[in-house]
Amino acid sequence: MAQAASKTCEICVSAPGSHYCIDCEEYYCENCKLLHNRQKLSRNHAFQKATDLIPEGKSKCSKHKEELTLLCNTCNVPVCTSCVAGKHNKHDFSKIVDAIAQLREENETKIRAKTNDANQNLKKIEDSLKSFDNSVESVIKAINDEGNMIKRMVDKSVAEMIVLVKEQSKKEKEKLTIMLSDARSVLAAGQTLDRKRKALDKTRHDGGMVQKINTMTEEINKLKINSLLEFPNISFNRKSVAEDDIRRMIGTYTIR
Ligand SMILES: [Zn+2]
Ligand SMILES: [Zn+2]
Ligand SMILES: [Zn+2]
Ligand SMILES: [Zn+2]
């Protein structure tokens, strides 16, 4: 067992015991420590600097002045071997080194569990970040695709509407053209009659002339001025499409 007062190597009992083997609970000098760590059985023993050790006095039973090597599990206090027969009679005990080993193991297990959980969370977050990025990309693509489709539909509708306007206005224009040529021929006939009238004025005013004037009157009466048909007209009624209407047309998305 460790002897705080001496702190001399417990192996060679000459050099200062500046190292404490936690597993053997013994002080070692520099040389003996090296040898200890080379031996197969104690290769993995952990050393602590003697100066870092808690002063021995504090781990001694205040009643029996013996080392507190046991832990009373019933009272959850460290006790010495003499305490076992006294106040803590028939209580449940374990060696302090075992209790420490168990506590260390428990802590190690707890830390491992927590780091595992943290790791899993990290992975879940990274995964969801990646899949969220992918979802955002596909939503953007869908909006783009839908928009392009609407643009193509708009282009097609505009082209079709223009073709329709041209076709229908052509028919109306044809009616106007017929009216125009009718009016032209009436005008030409009128001008011809006027020339005939002037020529007739220059001939002799006799009985034959009366006959000719009557014939001319008949021709004048025959000349029909057609009443005008309704003129065609075309105008555009704007639907006043707002940007909101376009957005509604494209679709909606939900983000949580
Ligand atoms: Zn030594
Ligand atoms: Zn050892
Ligand atoms: Zn005691
Ligand atoms: Zn007890």
UniProtKB/TrEMBL annotation:
- Coiled-coil-forming residues are none
One GO MF annotation is: zinc ion binding
**One GO location term (cellular component):** nucleoplasm
- For whether the record's keyword set contains Zinc, the answer is yes
* Gene3D superfamilies, per database record: Classic Zinc Finger (3.30.160.60)
- Entry-linked InterPro entries: TRIM45/56/19-like, Znf_B-box
**Is Translocase tagged as a keyword?**
no
- B box-type domain: residues covered: 4-50, 56-96
Q: Which PANTHER family match?
A: BONUS, ISOFORM C-RELATED, MEIOTIC P26, ISOFORM F
Q: Specify the protein name.
A: WASH complex subunit 7
Organism lineage string: Eukaryota, Metazoa, Spiralia, Lophotrochozoa, Mollusca
